[in-house]
Design brief:
2 copies of one chain form a homodimer. Chain A is an alpha+beta fold. Helices cover 31% and strands 28% of the residues of chain A. A 4-stranded antiparallel beta sheet of chain A has the order 2-3-1-4, covered by helices on one side. In chain A, strand 2 (31-35) and strand 3 (40-44) form a beta hairpin. The radius of gyration of chain A is 11 Å and the shape is globular. The two termini of chain A are 19 Å apart.
Chain lengths: 68, 68
């Protein structure tokens, strides 16, 4: 079960809440964590690719990239 | 040329920046304004419907509705 990690620029709880809302509506996501403090998003999915999830996160308008 | 108006919950400049980024990438938008202060977004488009633009704004994860 892959767990993908992303760096996402989020500056307030409205920002992290928006990313949370998008991921909670996304089919194929088993679980996820959004951390405003560390600016990290982790997503556990065996149905979606790392890139597919990145694109969904980017649709929020936040700067996002796969964590190094 | 229709100008559509939306109420969008935005709590910081990261929030309004995210909405701005999404609208600037959206084909068919002639001009738009995003106001963090008034929580309003106005969009000038002759190619997209009020509902199509609303759905794009909602993809940011922000609570959004057509202004009454």
């Amino acid at each position: 079960m892959p767990v993908y990690k992303y760096d996402v620029t989020m500056t307030c709880s409205g920002c992290s809440g928006a990313v949370t809302r998008v991921l909670s509506k996304l089919d194929g996501v088993k679980s996820f964590d959004v951390s405003l403090e560390t600016q990290k998003v982790t997503v556990d999915s065996d149905k979606l690719s790392e890139q597919e999830i990145l694109e969904k996160i980017q649709k929020t308008g936040k700067a996002a990239k796969v964590s190094a």
